[in-house]
From TrEMBL:
This is Ubiquitin carboxyl-terminal hydrolase. It comes from Phyllosticta citribraziliensis. Coiled coil: none annotated. The active site is at 89 (nucleophile), 165 (proton donor). The record marks 83 as: Transition state stabilizer. Residues 4-226 form the UCH catalytic domain. The record marks 180 as: Important for enzyme activity. Its EC number is 3.4.19.12. It catalyses: Thiol-dependent hydrolysis of ester, thioester, amide, peptide and isopeptide bonds formed by the C-terminal Gly of ubiquitin (a 76-residue protein attached to proteins as an intracellular targeting signal). Keywords: Hydrolase, Protease, Thiol protease, Ubl conjugation pathway. Belongs to the peptidase C12 family. Gene3D superfamilies: 1.20.58.860, Peptidase C12, ubiquitin carboxyl-terminal hydrolase. Pfam families: Peptidase_C12, UCH_C. InterPro entries: Papain-like_cys_pep_sf, Peptidase_C12_UCH, Peptidase_C12_UCH_sf, Ubiquitinyl_hydrolase_UCH37, UCH_C.
């Protein structure tokens, strides 16, 4: 890996094993399909959520957030770090929840040492310390997709590119906070106990989504929750436990695949297929059938409003 930070996917398996590899115990992420309080409450205890959205690159900095209020005093009393480097926002959002739940969650010795080391730092120096942490950067980069084409640390976004950003929401000291390293301070959304979090955070998320055109559907929400295998064992639900174990196995397999690119293999495979089609005299027919199927799938996805990337 290079010395920079690579992009990672908004995926429950990626973020769960990020937690584990950073040293946190008995905690995981679950993806939320529906944006309602009941769905979130069913995952209880919920320590916080990470929200992925299309970042408005033309938005100008403001002394006042569009929702909530800046809490500059809280920036020194809770773990809040300014984002000082590109592509780090996913892991930074994860740590914004995790390090503010030390005590409720066993965050592990390495992260506890990091938190203790940066406690007296202002937000900008915390961000620098996070960006320069070999443990955090290398763990983050271990989940980046392998690509023979693009080095994300060298890539420069253009005006036509879609830029996505991760932020965190979590209850701390009786307040609901939005923790975004691109903002000057934590954003308070009012009083909120740990138990009230599912009911209080959903309206905040809904208001944020309502700022976008109705055609924009590329959002993703991950909840940081207690390891569901523990809950399954506590109630003696063997089938649930088996499903969770199978899910972990699947996540491990998918994460392993992310570390490899198969471009060379696919290229050689396609050469062999093309050679065989030409030999059989069916190459042109095969190409036309593939074009027709691709057009059909594209039209079906367009009618359903399914995004091609997120």
């Amino acid at each position: 890996m290079s010395g920079g930070w690579n992009t990672i996917e908004s995926d429950a398996g990626v973020f769960t094993y990020l937690l584990q590899n950073l040293g946190a115990k008995d905690v995981q992420f679950e993806e939320l399909i529906s944006l309602d309080s009941e769905s979130l409450r069913q995952q209880s205890p919920v320590y916080g959520v990470i929200f992925l959205f299309k970042y408005p690159t033309d938005e100008k900095p403001s002394d006042k957030p569009k929702d909530g209020t800046f809490d500059h005093d809280a920036a020194e009393n809770i773990f809040f770090a300014a984002q000082t480097i590109q592509n780090a926002c996913g892991t930074q959002a994860l740590l914004s929840v995790l390090l503010n739940k030390d005590g409720d969650i066993d965050i592990g010795a390495p992260l506890r040492d990091f938190k203790d080391f940066t406690t007296a730092f202002p937000a900008d120096l915390r961000g620098e310390a996070l960006s320069n942490s070999d443990l955090i950067r290398e763990t983050h980069n271990s989940f980046a997709r392998s690509s023979p084409f693009v080095d994300e640390t060298q890539r420069t976004a253009t005006e036509d590119d879609d830029v996505y950003h991760f932020i965190a929401y979590t209850p701390i000291n009786g307040k609901l906070y939005e923790l975004d390293g691109l903002q000057p301070a934590p954003i308070s959304h009012g009083d909120c106990s740990f138990e009230e979090f599912p009911d209080k955070v959903i309206p905040v998320l809904q208001r944020r989504i309502e700022r976008y055109p109705v055609t924009e559907i590329r959002f993703n929400l991950l909840a940081m929750v207690r390891d569901l295998r523990i809950k399954a064992r506590e109630i003696g639900d063997v089938e649930w436990l088996q499903r969770e174990e199978q899910k972990r196995t699947s996540w491990q397999w998918e994460n392993a695949l992310r570390r490899h690119n198969f471009i060379g293999f696919v290229g050689e495979l396609m050469k062999g297929v093309v050679k065989q089609k030409i030999k059989e005299g069916t190459y042109d027919q095969w190409v036309e059938e593939a074009k027709t199927k691709t057009r059909t799938r594209y039209e079906e996805r367009r009618k359903k409003g399914v995004a091609d990337d997120i």
